[in-house]
User: Fold this.
Amino acid sequence: MTATRPLPLWRVLLWVWVLLAALVLAGCGTLPPPGPRTESQALPAGTVTPLSKLAGALRKQSRSRHDTGFLLLDSADSAFSSRLALTRQATRTLDLQYYAIHNDPGTGVLLAAIREAAARGVRVRILLDDLHTKGEDAEVLQLAFVPNVEMRLFNPLPAGRSMGKLRALSALQDFSRLQHRMHNKLFLADNVAGIVGGRNLGDAYFGQADDSNYIDLDVLAIGALVPAMSRSFDRYWNHPLAYPVEQLMSRRDLKAMVAMRRSNPSARAGGGDEAEGESVAASAPADLPGAMALEEVAWTWAPSALLADAPAKLSSEERDVDGGDQVVSGLLGLMRLSRRSVLIVTPYFVPGAQMMQVFAGLRRRGIAVVVLTNSLASSDAPLAHIGYERYRRELLKLGVEVHEMRALQPQSVRSALGSSGKARHASLHAKLVLMDDTWLGIGSMNLDLRSQLQNSEVAVLIRSRLLGRLIRERVTPIVREGAWRLELAPDGRLQWHAPAGVEPAVQHGEPDASATLQFLLKLAAPFTPDEML
Assistant:
């Protein structure tokens, strides 16, 4: 009689995980009915504040006939310092709308400034998608209980925030709603200055992460376009899917969860309450920039418009009546009007049939189409690469010029679109479309089916040759020095051509990506439709 071999540890853990998941799915709760909430609006346009006086003075100084000034936030430092400046100079309102706010040391400095603004009487409204408000990032929710701060979670999940990855499983009973996320990114001060772009709030977006930083891009607007941003914010803020944090969890429960997490010595300081200001200051990176001097930067005054999806896009009951894609489809419509060139920078690139038709039409007219996206090795979302890979050969056959960013970047490239250089590893996160070097669309959208069909997005469209030239100056070093150029060999195989000085000069497989990762993605590919990536 032979002894029975014990189960391997990984199988035991797998069964425990499956059992816990089953318990979660069986006993998961539902969202509470929408409770009483107070509707509120942005500060009325034209209200006199120090920021509005600054906007008026800057426009008068520019002698421009256009009523909105823009500043390209093309570095991690400018991204942080501009937000810090808006926070410190706001006297009436701060409105923040984000997909994710991370509980990082550097971000904690910005959140501390927001608490200071609330303490001096500024009304603060923070609207946050609920997908990432778990674990240590749930500490950010303590802001909801700070005087003069209101915080709402959009399209919240029903399960608790200490459940980690199991939390998302609890929403599988309503999988369609789980897929629709608020991906908008806005930072608005006194309804006269605002930031829109690709960055969430987190150290990796401000060049402060130790392992990998994002190459990203925002634009700061001051003047007449900002009230349109505020109207978009208000539509989401007052929507039934925006739940006040206090309706989802009590302050006592949140404090208990934070105390339990902070008992772990590896816990990091971040978005705590007022009593934790010293720990935030002590852990703040020493090289964080100070607040930007808004009156000293070079503003570009230009005609512009806002593209914003409606919150109804996330509600199956309202979507067919009042909501649909405005941002991605709007940019596709503008691409069709291009006369010479289209430059696309997007971290996740899953074109879909409609976008491929647009590219085919552009190429038939001789329009140059250049795409910069992530390689498999540089992407922070490998599953999205599955969808992109399905279109890669067809794009090249159309004559689209495709470049994939390298994961390991030289310093010149890391600083080109915003990473200050702590980590050599970089991941592309900037999202823009530049048409004829004149029309610039920049915002929260990716050029993929998820942004077009699932998530809500916001973007600003600007007509400016100067900003177009600045974009070219930032993107060109990445394309030349930090990206692979794809080509189809005569035998149909893909070739990755390396930048000058990188060996080997040509590769025939996903560069720098492990064989294990490539194998796992091949296994997952049959189960991942494009619109979910």
